[in-house]
Design goal:
By secondary structure, this protein is an alpha/beta fold. Strands 2-1-3-6-4-5 form a 6-stranded mixed beta sheet, sandwiched between helices. β1, α2 and β2 form a beta-alpha-beta unit. The longest helix is centred in the N-terminal third of the chain and has 21 residues. The N and C termini lie far apart (about 45 Å).
């Protein structure tokens, strides 16, 4: 298939998917861009940033940049669907809002921010890395503190398998104390490991704007299903 046809297919998929998601919300008065009592607010965390690059690929692609690109796409798609959402970071920076003491880890700041948002649901975007370059595919970690977090994680992975990664055999996992933000979260929380920076083929996909949009769209579908289920 010619490259132009592939790009056209991706664009049509993204557009139609977002329109379908938007049509779910028939009562427009029930959904807006302000945080309201009873409405969930999706807090999107683009992992790492600034001096913290996260992991990297063999060709020098940085995790923090891939995370941010997917997070920005996710933010756009959720807004198109009328879902209230916020970004923890919007550029290549650490999270030190309002002159907060920089001696405190920005990870603590992110957690404090998430826990301060009414009706928050945390979706943290990251990339994986492993010594075996053949490892690939999305996997989602979820907090043990809020039972419904597993359902959110499963919705996201299932949609990704259905539309993007049909051969992905990975299962989601409950986080332990090595995932600080999930371990301490007081709201439904997941960490989406979108792919492996150690796999050259997957890195090539992650470097593609069209592929990142497809990932963001699949994550949006999972979030929408979770909200519609109403089990927080």
């Amino acid at each position: 298939m010619k490259k132009s046809l592939i790009i056209l297919f991706v664009l049509i998929f993204t557009f139609v998917s977002c329109i379908c998601l938007n049509s779910v919300f028939t009562d427009k008065k029930a959904v807006n861009y302000e945080t309201k009592t009873g409405n969930k607010c999706i807090v999107i965390d683009a992992g790492h940033g600034g001096v913290d690059a996260g992991t990297s690929s063999a060709n020098g692609t940085l995790e923090k940049d891939i995370n941010l690109a997917i997070a920005l796409n996710l933010y756009d798609f959720l807004n198109i669907c009328g879902i209230n959402c916020k970004l923890i970071r919007e550029d290549d920076s650490e999270f030190y809002p309002n002159g907060i003491d920089r001696s405190k880890s920005d990870l603590y700041n992110r957690l404090d921010y998430v826990n301060s948002i009414d009706n928050a649901v945390l979706v943290s975007i990251h990339q994986n890395h492993f010594e075996d370059p053949n490892e690939w595919g999305m996997q989602v970690w979820y907090t043990a503190n809020i039972d419904s977090s597993k359902k959110l994680a499963d919705n996201i992975l299932n949609n990704t398998k259905m539309f993007i990664q049909p051969n992905n055999t990975r299962s989601n996992k409950q986080s332990d104390d090595s995932y600080y933000i999930l371990y301490k979260a007081q709201v439904p929380s997941v960490m989406v490991e979108c792919g492996f920076m150690s796999n050259p083929g997957e890195v090539a996909n992650l470097e593609s704007s069209a592929y990142r949009k497809r990932l963001a769209c699949a994550i949006t579908l999972g979030i929408t299903q979770y909200i519609n289920e109403g089990i927080y």
